[in-house]
Structure formats: C-alpha cells, structure tokens
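Let's practice the habit of predicting before peeking. Look at the sequence and jot down your guess about where helices and strands might fall. Then scroll down.
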Amino acid sequence: MAYRLSHKKKCIFVAIHVISASSWIGGTLGMLLLGLYLYSAANGEQLAYTLASMEIIDENLLKYPALMTLLTGILLSIWTQWGLVKHYWIVIKLILTLTTILIGIFFLNHWTASLVDMVSETGFATLQDHNFRSKWLAILLTASFNLLCLFIMVFITYFKPFGKIKKRRATNSYKPSERN
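Done guessing? Here is the structure:
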C-alpha cells in the first residue's frame, strides 16, 4: 500500500500549498500592476526602481512560491486519495502550473532582465524604444495570462470538474479460439 498522509500532516501540506499559491498569485498581480505603472514613469529614476521592484517580486514572490506550489501539489496528490493522474482536474492543474512556471523561467525572467539592462544603458529615453515597448507589452500580456491560469486553478480546486480519468482496458489481440 502506498504512503498516505495523516490528517495533521495533510493539513500542514494544504496550508503550505495555499500560502504558496496565494504568494504566487500576489506576486503575479504585483508584477502586472508594476508593469502597468512602468510605462507611466515620470523619469529615469522612477523607471529604474519600478523595474528593480519587479525583479525583486520575480525572484521572491514568483519563483519560490511557484516551485513550492508545484512540489506540495504533487506530494498532496500522491500522498492522498486523489492521485496524480486519477482525476482530470489534478492533471489540468499540473499542466497549467508547469506551463506558467516554464513561461516565467524562459520568458518573463529574461524580458524583465533585458528591460533593466536597457534602462541602465539609455535611461528614461528607453520608454521611446520600440524594443522596450514590445517587451513591456509582452510582460503585461504574459502576466495577465499567468494570472488567468492561476485563477482557473483556484476554481478548479474548489469545483473539481470533469470527473475521474477512466482507465483504458488493455486489448488483447490474441484470442484462444483463433489458433491455427
């Protein structure tokens, strides 16, 4: 029989999972709001410290909470009756979680860092740069997409839609009556 969490341990894991997910949602919302504010900066200094704040949020309220949410979610599903691939809602949450984490790693982190470099090189004039504006818009759209995915995951958690994944029966191509 597989390992199962006691009620007390399950409550601790759920609490850590909820706190991590909440931090992740808050960080994503913070990135989105700072990204909106970024384009209305009044001077180069404001632009620089807004981007510095976005980097701090990215490092502390996106990366670690996202990874902790993924880890606790996997452990909760494995160590409880839900299972990792028994229900559609868990598989959907896993896919959305991995998608948003990978988007953050391969895109958002890089775009934010490149905006910081651009501002450090050209200062306030960076706002007029087409490359800056396209990356800024990409950050806003991607952060909005990630926030939407996180909200969908919250609703999926509470409503648990789509039911169980049905096991496929192995088809046996050999039938005893068909012997030569």
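How did you do? The chain has four helices and no strands.
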